[in-house]
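The instructor's notes for this session suggest beginning with a concrete chain rather than abstract definitions. Hand out the sequence below and ask the class to guess, before any prediction is shown, which regions might be ordered.
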Amino acid sequence: MALKLEPGTRLVVATHNPGKARELAEILENRFVLVTAGELGLAEPDETETTFVGNALLKARAAAEASGLPALADDSGLSVAALDGAPGIYSARWAGPGRDFTNAMKKVEERLEEAGAAGDLAAWFTCALALAWPGGPAVVVEGRVDGTLAFPPRGGRGFGYDPIFVPEGGAATFGEMAPAEKDAMSHRARAFAKLKAALL
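After discussion, reveal the predicted structure:
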C-alpha cells in the first residue's frame, strides 16, 4: 500500500491533551477529520520507551489498533543542556498527574540552581511524530528547535513549558507568541514538515 494520506481522512490523534490536539489540527491545516484518543475513551499506554521516537511509535500503534483508524501520535519535550538533557522524555511527568506545568517550570529553575548552572540556559524542544496504520506500517519523523530558557515564565499562550522557552534568534517566549508565529518555527512544525513531505 502507498503510504499516503488523502485529505478528509479520519485520523485518531493519540493524545488526551486538548492544547496539543488543537495545535496538531492547526499545523495539519484542518485537512483531516481528527478525533482524539480522549474523545474515543482510549486508554493512554505506558510510555516505556527511552526515546521520543520510541514513545511516539508506541502511542500511535496502540491508538491505531484500539480504534481501527490511522493514528497520529506525538512525543515531545524540553531538554536542558545543563541538566544532561532532562526533563526530556519525562517532560510531562515532571508536571505530575495533574499536568501542573507551573510546577514543572519551577522544578527546571530549581534543578538549574541546585546544579550551580543557573547561568547556562541553553535548551531545546524535540518533537517525534509517528503515524501508524492498524496492523500495518508506520512513519516516524523528528523535529527540533534550539533556544534558551527565560525565568520567570512569560506569556499565557501555548502550553507546557512554552512560557520559559525563547527560540534561537527570538526575544519572545513561545508562551508570548501568536499561535501562527509559533507554528511557523516550532519543533512540532518542523516534524510536521517532514511528515507532510513523506505522506501528502
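Then share the key points. The helical segments are 18-27, 52-67, 91-94, 101-114, 179-183, 187-199. Strands lie at 10-13, 33-36, 71-80, 122-132, 138-149, 165-167.
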